[in-house]
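Preliminary data (for renewal application), cytidine-5'-diphosphate complex.
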Amino acid sequence: RGMIIAVDGPSGSGKSSTARGVADRLGLRFLDTGATYRAVTWSAIEHGLDLDDTAAVAQRARELRLELSTDPLNQFVIADGTDVTAAIREPRISERVSKIATNLDVRKELIRRQREIIDEAQPSGGIVVEGRDIATVVATDAELKVLLTADQEARLARRGAELAVGSVTAEQLRDQIVRRDADDSTVADFQVASDGAVTIDSTDLSLEEVIDVISRLAKE
Ligand code: CDP
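Predicted structure:
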């Protein structure tokens, strides 16, 4: 089979751009698992569900038709026939996604789908998978496991730069990320350090530098 590279890390650690860059550099497919949680959040809201109704939200996750592009240079997400690529990045989704991600039946369903996508990518050489629990749960057999960290100030600054065009203030953004970190910290699988994972602190590294380090490790 092809190679699996797991890239885990918190919001703003740069894991998305990094993982995409590594996939592009090495000619691998790319899977952003966060997008699956975001798409279910979008759909649950669209259907007017009470997000605290865990059974209803899990049912929605199972019924949702989800199409994710694994082309690192052309990412899109289609949910029940609607292109939600941009919509799932909106603050209203970011604010609610942790609630959906702590729903264990949602996780079960999305992890199943993520593994399907990973299997489908094997004939084309392999895949870089980005998320929070890839090395610990989704793909424990990954050839390379990277935990990407960055101190909180650097993470807030990166997120701020990404969202500079949006309507959120720096203050609101800080609150949102600090709150999401706290919410995400209740998911047990995010706490566990994976066996054999390489930790890379990206605080003082450029995107290119982090991509270089991971690409080199992948070729070893
Ligand atoms: O880009 P950012 O790190 O801000 O978020 P993301 O990777 O799109 O993930 C959004 C949310 O989905 C996270 O805050 C987690 O609550 C959840 N998530 C998860 O539970 N498991 C994953 N493998 C990936 C994301």
